[in-house]
Write a structure and sequence with these properties.
- It is a single chain.
- The protein contains seven helices and twelve strands.
- By secondary structure, it is an alpha/beta fold.
- β2 and β3 form a beta hairpin.
- α2 packs parallel to α3 and α2 packs parallel to α7.
Length: 236
């Protein structure tokens, strides 16, 4: 089954309008025509079973036949990842985090980050594509912060913060799993390519985060993000 995305603002009662690249994908790539049935999500949990009513050069108009709410995981798992210098690696990480079921994604500039700019439009496009590919119906919210201090200030109110850290011993993993299991929501935090600075580690103490072992080997940021997301969402 192919799944398409429509901005909630373009859904009016039993009618949906899809334009832009999504419209091209429906008509030019998959060659759907008037009368075909397709499935659409609004990214806020709803799946729409639709029939194509009209096709123009720039848009597709749909008639909703059935609307269903797909309940997301009870635990809201967020993932915070340090900005990665190479764009394709960051987009790969965000794609896999979305496919695994993260509810929110935070990207931040660490003290040791090698890059300080971000194309949010590309990240948002990657997340939409990953949501559709994995047949999920809740679009993760994307947040961007210029420092660890800004990040922790926001996510500390969303439940426990679990930090992936290569310096921690293996026993810390079980403690982190227990904290996650007992929480309605939590955030997984992964460092940038250069690791955490001394100042950032002091912030961890200030915000009472839980440090979790990433194993005995140093991992790339995107690898650590995928491993931690899979590990904790599966156990949530």
């Amino acid at each position: 089954m192919n799944l398409f995305y429509a901005n909630p603002e373009d859904i009016l009662g039993d009618s949906i309008r899809i334009d832009g690249q999504e419209s091209i994908h429906i008509t030019k790539v998959l060659r759907h025509s008037v009368g075909d049935e397709i499935f659409v999500t609004d990214g806020i949990g709803y799946r729409y079973h639709c029939v194509i009513e009209t096709i123009s050069k720039k848009s597709v108009s749909l008639s909703v036949q059935k609307k269903s709410f797909i309940k997301p995981n009870e635990q809201a798992v967020s993932v915070a990842i340090g900005l990665i210098k190479k764009r394709d690696r960051l987009e790969f990480a965000v794609e896999k985090i979305t496919e695994l079921g993260a509810r929110e994604i935070f990207i931040y500039v660490g003290d040791h980050s090698e890059k300080s700019s971000l194309r949010l439009d590309r990240i948002e496009s990657t997340v939409i594509s990953a949501m559709k590919q994995s047949l999920r119906y809740t679009l993760p919210k994307i947040h961007y912060h210029q420092s660890m201090a800004q990040l922790l200030e926001e996510i500390s109110g969303n439940g426990p913060v679990i930090v992936g850290d290569e310096t921690e011993d293996v026993d810390s993993t079980e403690k982190a799993r227990t904290i996650a299991a007992e929480s309605r929501g939590f955030t997984l935090l992964i460092g940038p390519e250069g690791g955490f600075s001394g100042n950032e580690r002091n912030l961890f103490k200030q915000y009472n985060v839980c440090l979790c072992s990433l194993g005995s080997h140093r991992l790339r940021t995107e690898t650590a993000a995928i491993i931690m997301t899979d590990r904790f969402i599966r156990s949530a």
